[in-house]
## 1
Amino acid sequence: MSTYKRATLDEEELLDTGSDGIYHTSTMQVGLQRGLGLRCWAEKTHVERKLVVVVCALSVALFICIMTLGLHYKESHPGMCLSEPCVSVASTVLGALDRSVDPCQDFYNFACGGWMRKNPLPEGKSRWGPFSNLWEHNMAIMKNLLENTSMKSLSKAEQKTQWYYQACMNESKIEELGAKPLQDLINQTGGWGLKDPWDKDNFQEVLRIVSASFRASPFFTVFVSTDSKSSNSNIIQVDQSGLGLPSREYYLNKTANEKYLKAYLSFLVELGILLGGSEETSQKMMQEIIDFETALAHITVPQEERRDEMKIYHKIQAKELATLAPAVDWMPFLSAVFTPVALNDSEPVVVYAKEYLQKVSELISNTNKSVLNNYMIMKVVRKMVSILDQRFQDAEQRFLEVMYGTKKSCTPRWKLCVSDTDSALGFALGALFVKATFSEDSKAFVEDMVSEIKWAFEGSLKTVGWMDPKTKKAAKEKADAIYNMVGYPKFIMKPKELDMVFNDFDVVSDLYFQNVMNYYNFSARVTANQLRKAPNRDQWSMTPPTVNAYYNPTKNEMVLPAGILQAPFYNHAWPKAMNFGGIGVVMGHELTHAFDDQGREYDKDGNLRQWWQNSSVEAFKQQTQCMVEQYSNYSINKEPLNGKHTLGENIADNGGLRAAYKAYINWIEKNGEEATLPALGMTNRQLFFVGFAQVCANICSLCFPQLLPGRWSKTGCLFTTHCVLSLHYYLDSQFSPGRQKN
């Protein structure tokens, strides 16, 4: 310190030492005079020499200690990040907090209360959060790309996206055509009893047409996908389907859901009137359709009873379907749906709803043929409502407003058209989106993060006490084998390959209804062609602009589209705490799906088989049962949540948070502490959890127990991961505004 002086050496002593002439001007040089140091050393006593040596040694040691401590302090106290990205994200985080809330009492409101106050539910939305907000951002980018007709060097597929969008935006043409395109289709299908008496025996023919040409799924759904027990091949699959409302519960509890059933009936009646029927005829017909759907709901197996895929998987030959469900003429039906592929009665088929098919066959046989016909036609009408004129869309809006509290009239037309273009030509549109927004540097950075998350997850497997060694070894092998797909599938950046994919999809710039019909036909041909091909790993189930991610068990792959690899989930210039708490948790979530109650049934090659030891299976069920009970204790609108129904997501939430946090701690151990953000008064470990909560914040107008909202899922997740949080939150008495724990 500048004020510090040795007590044994004052100014007078310094003056006295100068009187012997040692500092005579003739001897003052830079350095010692030749021989002076040797003479001084020779004149010193033995004790003095020892003292000098000791002092020098101590001085060197002290210097080394100071340097070491300085470097250590710099690593453990790296200071504050004041770069533009850090200041910006700190402001965002700070604005989302509610510092009046004790984080140890209500962490969700502490982390998200400020955001919820400043973000009222937008008109036209039933729920809102960072996922929704980022999707709006991505749609605005896609809108600009689709409307920029001056772009050069577009591939043919990319041009089709602009034509498809233009046709959707051509509202004058859509209004001019009115209901005629749909009425023509209904007449071509065989008509229905809306305007004139109907009495035909053409059930099998109508079923084939609506299923093959319009991709409707009355009674059941048929599709081509990877064989769960032979992941190197595709196979025809059959499953339950057919309800017009989101779940069977709406039909079974009529008292509790009276307003929804009433709104549904009013909606169908209005559609009938718009298509030429009288109110009386429409009322009678639509009530019969709802009664039939109610009967379907009674035989539909609840989703929570279908989570064990080993139990519901049944591989049979096509000819056995005739015995299982004789009400359907199966071979002509399958041949129509999968034309032009040649099928025979020995074609393998996987049935996921064996008992349901038996019961639906009985229901078909015992139902009036006019009701069956009207029900099938209405399934087609429901698919077409959004592509017809404004009258139909207004009718749908009134129904959706009751169901979800949304006002579609508040949604600009361009948003509907961007979304539909993404659905039909998403990979061609994705090519434009990726070129405009996504960098290869981001791809490499995210891939490194995935490796960190995977490494942390595998490390956690070693500490799972209830899992036997053999199962642990196999689980690690599966985690090692997970294939990571980041950003986009490679083929979309190769114009010739992209054009080849969409070559048979005819698109015009002024006929929206026709484009949608062309898409249904194109989609049917693509599905049929997959039947005789091996599964393609480069074929994604999400388009690149999508704000989401997924894990595919039959491919054992994790997919992270470019659409989600942006703020608030990820920014390469942000502190790692934010990235690991954001996109890192998403990565961990999808990785954990490989080992949830459904994903664990698939081995490292994507095959559905028993690869766990029985003891570990039983231990797993015991471990997850407490999670089922925990989440079932939450309720919305006084109705309890279904912890069994949401078990897979809850496991993934908890496992994802643990893996991401462990990965972040591992990163710190390898790279040292990173600078903190200004103004927050948080450690980076605390910032990790705050960042996690803030990307999961959401508000909703009508919250349904069938879907677990962010507040409940994340609160439950934080509660379950108490072993992690107790270290830095719940046992951190210093965590409060203006304080931080070092």
Note: The first helix runs from residue 11 to 17.
## 2
Amino acid sequence: MKNMQRLTWIDTLGTTYASGAEEEITLRDNEKAFQKYHIRPRLLRNVAYRNMSLTMLGQPVGMPLGISPVAFQKMAHPDGEVGTARALANHGGVMILSMLSTTALEDLPRKTPPGSVHWLQIYITKDREATRELIHRADISGYKAIVVTADSPVNGMWGINMVHNLTLPSHLRLPNLQAKGEVEVSGSNLRSKVGFSLLDPSLTWKDIQWIQTFTALPIVVKGVLTAEDAILAVEHGASGILVSNHGGRQLDGVPATLDVLPEIVRAVKGRAEVYLDGGVRKVETFLKPWLWVQKLYSLVDQLSGA
């Protein structure tokens, strides 16, 4: 089916969604990592009533499931990000809206069911005042967290995508960026324009602390792949860590997210919540990292005397 999709998706958008960076080693490894672990089923347990509800950054959610940020969703379907958020709301998960969404961040809370939990993903841009204003908009619109993508100081080297020009259709906008003309999105080569206009290669951990000077929203650092960076994230005020390699679309050759999850959970020692994306394709792959984290948190508590 996947091969048929690749043959059918000859349009640029299909290629964009399906591919990864350079040789796509990390993209493939994300999926392969899940095949190394198996679920040990236990029998004759009463499962007539199943409750997976919990809290994420203090907000009650129906299950430990979220949608990582995906840009330009109205290019794939007219409902775009709102459609994705509504579907997720039926299961009580967390919607992370991309800064590069084709839906204004203010529209998501208005067009989704009451009680839906939304976080906003951002890149800390060259224009710090624009970043500050975007976070303020999220704050007053009811978003519950800011997810800072930290693994993209520059654009990744996409493989098969490099021969394509990603173009935003004329009827679509990037409303979270275009209010003050932060980025020009007309014409071709959209990805290069966005990267050149926005991404700041000078970012440091101090920028995570800078955000905390003007918002009380919890911060999730996205893109962490090592215990060392997980510790630094916590030390600089992060409330959550999203273990992510950008879906294998940023730096090829980095490890699969599931493979590094244990070392990061152990390093954090319960001081921040830990999430994972990358390689999750079906129900059992969703369950595996969640079960990993539950087991690891239990071990950390035992070792720390909790």
Note: The longest strand covers residues 117-122.
